[in-house]
TrEMBL record:
Keywords: Cell cycle, Cell division, Chromosome partition, Cytoplasm, DNA integration, DNA recombination, DNA-binding. PROSITE patterns: CB, TYR_RECOMBINASE. InterPro entries: CB (IPR044068), DNA_brk_join_enz (IPR011010), Integrase-like_cat_sf (IPR013762), Integrase_catalytic (IPR002104), Integrase_recombinase_N (IPR010998), Tyrosine_recombinase_XerCD (IPR050090). It is found in: Cytoplasm. Residues 1-22 have a biased composition (Low complexity). Gene3D superfamilies: 1.10.150.130, Intergrase catalytic core. Pfam families: Phage_integrase. Residues 189-399 form the Tyr recombinase domain. Residues 1-24 are annotated as: Disordered. Residues 60-164 form the Core-binding (CB) domain. The keyword ATP-binding does not apply. It comes from Marinospirillum alkalitolerans. The keyword Nucleotide-binding does not apply. This is Tyrosine-type recombinase/integrase.
């Protein structure tokens, strides 16, 4: 959402806007949406407080308020949150004929039903991913699964809470939503990581690549970057947008230890222990880039570079390059270990975060430190990664049995 979008609502009193009902407008991304009727701006929405009450954000209408919320995020989180906010705004304007600041809990129950089946599909759903500026762009590819619906509603619950806390809305219409995502969240954590054996296969494959003597320069650069990224992702459990935003100088030395400084989810600052093996991998990577192996304390340049070593790369490129690595490793072991190969093909950068936290838990890292490393706001989230007692639990439960119910 660009800043120019804030003009949409202020232009909405034009004759053009009044001549066409919002529910008849074609579905377009917010940058290309036709002017809307003034009553949809949210300037006088039913959930807005009296004018004399202090509001902590300078937002004359709903779209501006949503943009301020989005400005709190960056990278992949921003793109994900923008997608859900945009879907809701388009739905409440073009389907319900209401401003965001007039939605009630009942309206949002209807919105969840809409997520499960966006109709009319021809209006709301596209075939394949089209550029945002294209007339073929649509906010949906089809119905959302129950898990995706819950994920969308959790994001929107955070949006409404932000607007309520800022004094822009009187209340959060999703505050009473019953949380149904814990089972899916636990399932995701327990399935979307690499077992120790599969992880070792990936490491062994990368070691094998590093022994290639006659690789082309571009291939050598790719292998060097993979080598560093594997250390970074596994030893620090970062989110992919944090990797893309990282600078060389984010690693610093204090009182005998190395640390990594990161601004994480929601703009929260943290300092995480950086193991010596990671610092060694950073030195090797810097040497490959033609940089000093040790003088990075004042280096504000990107940590992870393109193959030419000239500039940083996006979160999407980091995601894609790690998918390339896991795909290569999967192809290499396909005949010997087809199940591991299938797992590697599914793996993504977020799998590496789950893998890191899970393996730290397996290694016996205390829960309080594990939560700080993962930067979880709740210990309940961190506990989902504790697998080490599963075997003992099964063994203890196995002591309780049932005699045969039929004669042998």
């Amino acid at each position: 959402m660009s800043s120019e979008l804030s003009l949409t609502a202020s232009q909405s009193s034009s004759p053009q806007a009044r001549s066409q009902s919002a529910t008849e407008l074609p579905v377009r991304c917010l940058e290309r949406l036709a002017p809307l009727p003034a009553e949809l701006s949210g300037a006088s929405g039913r959930n807005r407080p009296p004018a004399h009450l202090h509001c902590q954000i300078d937002a004359p209408h709903d779209l501006a308020a949503v943009q301020l919320w989005l400005a709190e995020y960056q990278g992949q989180t921003y793109r994900t949150y923008r997608k859900e906010a945009e879907r809701l705004l388009l739905w409440c304007w073009l389907q319900r004929g209401l401003p965001l600041s007039s939605l009630t809990r009942e309206d949002l129950v209807e919105y969840q039903a809409f997520l499960a089946d966006p109709q009319p599909a021809k209006r709301w759903c596209g075939h394949g991913r089209a550029p945002r500026h294209s007339d073929a762009w649509r906010p949906f590819q089809g119905p959302l699964s129950p898990a995706s619906q819950q994920h969308a509603l959790r994001i929107l619950k955070g949006l409404f809470q932000y607007l309520h806390d800022a004094g822009y809305l009187l209340g959060n219409p999703l505050a009473l939503m019953r949380h149904k995502g814990s089972r899916q969240e636990a399932k995701s954590v327990r399935e979307r990581y690499l077992e120790q054996e599969t992880w070792q296969v990936l490491v062994d494959y990368l070691v094998r690549l590093g022994q290639e003597q006659e690789a082309e320069p571009a291939r050598q650069a790719q292998i060097a970057r993979w080598h560093f990224l594997l250390h970074f992702l596994y030893l620090l459990a970062p989110r992919v947008h944090e990797v893309a935003q990282a600078k060389m100088q984010d690693f610093f030395y204090r009182r005998g230890y190395w640390w990594w400084a990161v601004e994480g989810k929601g703009g929260k600052y943290a300092e995480i222990p950086a193991q010596p093996k990671l610092i060694d991998a950073l030195k090797v990577y810097r040497q490959h880039l033609g940089l000093s192996a040790t003088e990075w304390m004042q280096d504000a340049s990107p940590l992870v570079r393109n193959l030419r070593g000239t500039e940083g790369i996006s979160a999407n490129m980091i995601y894609r390059t790690m998918k390339d690595l896991t795909a290569e490793a999967a192809a290499f072991i396909e005949d010997q270990a087809p199940e591991m190969a299938a797992t590697l093909r599914q793996a993504s950068t977020h799998w590496f975060r789950h893998t890191s936290i899970t393996h730290q838990a397996d290694a016996g890292v205390e829960l309080r430190y594990l939560a700080r490393n993962a930067r979880h706001s709740s210990l309940a989230t961190t506990r989902l990664y504790l697998h080490e007692e599963d075997g003992a639990w099964q063994e203890q439960t196995g002591r309780h049995g049932l005699k045969p119910l039929t004669p042998e």
